[in-house]
Specification:
The complex is a heterodimer. Chain A is of the alpha/beta class. Chain A is about 35% helix and about 25% strand. In chain A, the strands form 2 sheets. Chain A has a 6-stranded mixed β-sheet with strand order 6-7-8-3-9-10, sandwiched between helices. Chain A has a 4-stranded antiparallel β-sheet with strand order 2-1-4-5, covered by helices on one side. Chain B has 2 domains: about 1-185, no CATH class; about 190-445, no CATH class. Classes of the chains: A alpha/beta, B mainly alpha.
Chain lengths: ~260, ~450
């Protein structure tokens, strides 16, 4: 594994926000044999980048996302988030790192059902013991088009509205890196497009987004698209069109099948 | 259909385990009451009368506890599986068949649980009964008798209570709409239905009549003494859907949540879920209010006897306490802990969400502890109302003869509350500890 103090350098000379080197992830299967889900994956994410990860089902996309976010331990290699190596942090330090640097948007919205939209949005700030005013939270909710829904609980909101609350939560916490796992997977076309536009806006300045998706149009909005196949980075595309993503995915699928 | 009954039981083991534990406790408790009845067979009339009184009081208290707790547990068991029932309907299982599958599952679990409880307690039954009768004047010589037929009767009785108590809930299982697969319906909230209002009115009226009647006898309370507290407890249990939600929100609102995120999360979760926590709160109210109101009535009557005659009245010994209240308390405590354990799945998701947002393990555990304390605290407040009503009611009634100071059974209430705190905190924290070991991804990633 790499030394946690080694600086990583981005394309613009600044440090990479995220630097993953040679990560592998192995699961023990039910019959006792081991299954390699990720094999020697290396990638970097720079500040302001929007990176999409695509690949056939079972290619290891979601596992990669959760390993990069420190929500799932990797088997070997190193992930450095703002130069801190995740596998060398204590659980408490890892929780603090997630709280301060990372935001999540999940496919199934994953809002806390007992909290209102306003309370869900202000939760990361509460966890970090940061003061956040109701008016600041309300203005973030208004920025995602949820003015007047501040006091609603998740069960009273539509899927698209819930996902926008999840994005407002990320915006309010202002993390350096946002991980999105199939954020449009449970939404209709219109709601999905609105969510993608919001994520695109998140990825600017010092803030980056890493998104796993099956949606070609969604992937085509990213600065960079990584095509995963059989646990490895098969191809990397820069600002591709949806048809180029489809072509790369088809090729990856064909090679898996052959 | 038989395959569906058993496969689904195995797939939802944590939920059904709760029902199994409670029916086992009910089987054990009912066995003790049945043991008292069978021990009276063939006795002389004098002994028979004494033992029959004891047996009938024990049986009444056990039945109140078993019916209250089992009814709520079976309802919760069904509510927690609404999504499965919706899925069954999607694959073509008819609504009527869903209802019958649920009834069959409940019958299987009830038979297994009550058999387990009866079998486990049977070797100790003679010793329990002997100890129970040891401080009952004139009944010490009675040799306990148990019969295989009485064990069988207990198993069938408990199973019957489970199946009959779930008739309405199992019908509702069949009425679950397939759309609930897509939405987290979260189960039904317990409300004050017509039947509940009728029970509330009836038990309240009987409790008031009983309380008033103690002041009609110059010698003070007689046999009704031991039934007044349990009756007011039953009144409180009937009123839980009406009382618990505003009470919980009001008292937890007095404690500011700005300083502690764990308290903030626990308070909101408890307030949000209170309508679905009726099973837990009912069982906790029974566990605290039953012994406390029992002692409140007993001690208030003791105050009356002292005021009227200057003599102290004998108190109830540990053996009699075990016989009268041991079984009901076992059932209610098992019910409270089991219902908390059964709701593990929703807690797992919240635990993972808080972790993903940067919450530490300590915070997640503290949140579970606060939630347990909120449930016990709310139940203790409802129980306090039962104790005050029992003590003041008895004192007012007895004051018609001689001025009587009420007693509120504070010590038993504190003791029972402490036991509840330990049991419910453990039941809340254990699933959270287990959830903390599961990868967050496994809980939060889309199915």
């Amino acid at each position: 594994m790499s030394n946690p103090s080694v600086p990583t350098t981005g394309v613009n000379g600044a440090g990479h926000l995220l630097d993953a080197q040679h990560i592998t992830k192995t699961y023990a299967s039910a019959d006792g044999s081991s299954v390699d889900v990720l094999r020697d994956v290396s990638l970097t994410v720079d500040p302001g980048e929007f990176v999409a990860v695509v690949g056939p089902s079972g290619s290891g996309k979601s596992t990669l996302l959760y390993c990069l976010a420190g929500l799932e331990p990797y088997s070997s290699g190193a992930v450095l988030l703002q130069r801190k190596q995740l596998d060398q942090l204590t659980p408490k330090a890892l929780a603090t790192l997630r709280r301060d640097l990372v935001g999540f948007v999940f496919q199934s919205f994953n809002l806390i059902p007992s909290l209102t939209a306003r309370q869900n949005v202000s939760l990361p700030a509460r966890l970090a013991h940061r003061a956040v005013s109701d008016s600041a939270v309300d203005s973030v909710l208004a920025s995602v088009g949820l003015q007047g829904r501040e006091g609603y609980r998740p069960g009273q909101l539509s899927g698209g509205q819930q996902q926008r609350v999840a994005i407002a939560r990320v915006l309010a916490a202002n993390p350096a890196l946002v991980f999105a796992d199939e954020p449009t997977g449970a939404l209709d076309t219109q709601a999905g497009a609105a969510v993608l536009e919001l994520l695109r806006q998140v990825a600017q300045g010092d803030r980056s987004v890493v998104m796993v998706t099956h949606d070609l149009e969604a992937a085509a909005r990213a600065d960079r698209v990584l095509v995963l196949r059989d646990g490895r980075v098969h191809r990397e595309l820069r600002r591709p069109s949806a048809s180029e993503v489809l072509e790369a995915l088809t090729a990856a699928g064909d090679e898996v099948a052959s | 259909m038989i395959r569906l009954v058993f496969r689904d039981l195995l797939a939802n083991v944590p939920i059904w385990l709760g029902a199994l534990v409670v029916t086992a406790a009910a089987g054990a408790a009912t066995s003790v009451a049945a043991g008292l009845v069978t021990s009276s067979f063939g006795l002389d009339l004098v002994y028979l009368a004494g033992l029959t009184t004891l047996a009938s009081i024990s049986a009444i208290l056990t039945i109140i506890s078993v019916v209250t707790v089992l009814g709520n547990v079976t309802r919760l068991t069904i509510d927690l599986q609404r999504r499965s029932y919706a899925l069954w309907q999607l694959v073509g299982v008819s609504a009527a068949r869903v209802t019958w599958v649920v009834r069959a599952q409940l019958a299987v679990v009830a038979l297994l649980g009550s058999t387990l409880g009866t079998v486990l307690v049977s070797p100790f039954l003679p010793s329990i009964l002997r100890f129970g009768l040891s401080d009952s004047s004139g009944l010490q010589q009675i040799e306990p008798q148990t019969f295989a037929a009485s064990h069988l009767a207990v198993i069938l009785l408990v199973s019957l209570v489970v199946v009959l108590g779930s008739v309405k809930s199992s019908k509702r299982a069949g009425r679950v709409r397939a759309i609930e697969v897509l939405r987290d319906a979260g189960g039904d909230v317990t409300r004050m239905g017509v039947v509940r209002w009728i029970f509330f009115g009836l038990t309240f009226a009987v409790a008031l009549l009983m309380t008033w009647s103690v002041g009609s006898n110059p010698a003070g309370a007689g046999g009704q003494l031991v039934i007044i507290g349990p009756l007011f407890t039953a009144v409180a249990v009937c009123a839980i859907p009406l009382v618990a939600p505003p009470l919980l929100r009001a008292w937890t609102g007095l404690i500011p949540d700005r300083r502690s995120t764990s308290w903030f999360l626990a308070r909101n979760a408890a307030g949000f879920n209170v309508g679905r926590s009726a099973a837990t709160i009912s069982a906790l109210v029974v566990t605290i209010a039953l012994p406390a109101s029992f002692y409140a009535a007993l001690s208030t009557n003791g105050n009356f006897v002292r005021a009227a005659t200057g003599e102290a009245m004998g108190t109830i010994g540990p053996g009699s306490f075990l016989l009268l209240l041991g079984g009901p308390l076992l059932v209610s405590l098992a019910g409270a802990a089991a219902t908390v354990l059964m709701a593990t799945r929703t807690r797992e998701q919240e635990t993972a969400l808080v972790q993903a947002a940067g919450g530490s393990r300590g915070l997640v555990l503290l949140r579970a502890t606060w939630e347990a304390l909120i449930l016990v605290g709310t139940s203790a407040l409802i129980a306090a109302a039962v104790q005050i009503t029992t003590g003041v009611g008895m004192a007012l009634s007895l004051s018609r003869i001689t001025g009587t100071i009420p007693d509120f059974g504070l010590l038993p209430a504190v003791a029972a509350s402490v036991v509840c705190v330990i049991a419910i905190t453990a039941a809340s924290a254990l699933p959270v500890l287990s959830a903390l070991r599961r990868p967050v991804r496994a809980v939060l990633a889309a199915e």
